[in-house]
Amino acid sequence: MPPTRAELEAARDRVIDDVLGSSLDILFCGINPGLYSAATGHHFARPGNRFWPALHRSGLTPQLLAPAEQGLLPSFGLGITNVVARATAQAAELSAEEFRAGGLRLARLVTEVRPRVLAVAGVTAYRTAFGRAKAVVGPQEEQVGGTAVWVLPNPSGLNAHWTLERIAGQMRLLRESIGRPPL
Questions:
Q1: DSSP-assigned states of every residue in 31-71
Q2: Which residues pair with 86 in a beta bridge?
Q3: Domains with residue ranges and CATH for the chain
Q4: 98-116: per-residue pLDDT in tens?
Q5: How is residue 72 annotated by DSSP?
Q6: What's the rounded Cα separation, in Å, for the pair 111 and 113?
Q7: Among residues 61, 65, 68, 63, which one has the least CA distance to residue 37?
């Protein structure tokens, strides 16, 4: 059953645990958890979010995973974190300072976890967190914590000019760039 309005409001400022593993090819990084995700404890959990379908269509997972199955990701060499850890109803509620502090935290995390690629799902969040005003979707010249960076479009249903197929296409290009065959 979906969370109630009261459960969603109670999830404000909650933090969701990162999904990490010992040998990650890709660490996906969302902007921050929405209230729906925080209420359920699962990343990209809001119905209509295209992260999970795009992940599967890109060949990075062998089947379409539900958000509640996020714990399976490390077995596929994948993980998830967020630029800003606290949950909000909208990313617009976050300050530039929170994004910059999140960028520093993310650089420390990447240094510890050592994924092959950090994939940030949201170009505006990446620009703000890392001071890269002209960044565009795709591979970046700069590294974070010694790790290659790829910026993906935000998979939220609110980002309507990026279709599911285009988002999956960017994830597919990322997968191919590291030489991973489709699962």
A1: S--BHHHHHHT-TT-STT--HHHHHHHTTSSSSPPPGGGGG
A2: 15
A3: 5-177 (3.40.470.10)
A4: 999 999 999 999 999 999 9
A5: G
A6: 6
A7: 68
Which pair of tokens denotes residue 81?
Answer: 């974190």
The residues near 124 (Cβ < 8 Å, ≥ 6 apart) are 154
How far is the C-alpha of 14 from the C-alpha of 154, rounded, in Å? 21
For the entire predicted model, the pTM comes to 0.97
Q: Which residue has the tokens 């092959």?
A: 116
How far is the first Cα of the chain from the last one, in angstroms, to the nearest whole number? Answer: 30
What's the rounded mean pLDDT across residues 62-90? 98
* Residue 173: both structure tokens together: 């290009």
> How far is 78 from 22, CA to CA, in rounded Å?
10
Q: Helix, strand, coil proportions of the chain in percent (round to 5)?
A: 40, 20, 45
Q: To the nearest whole percent, how much of the chain has pLDDT over 70?
A: 100
Nearest to 11 by CA among 28, 32, 27: 32
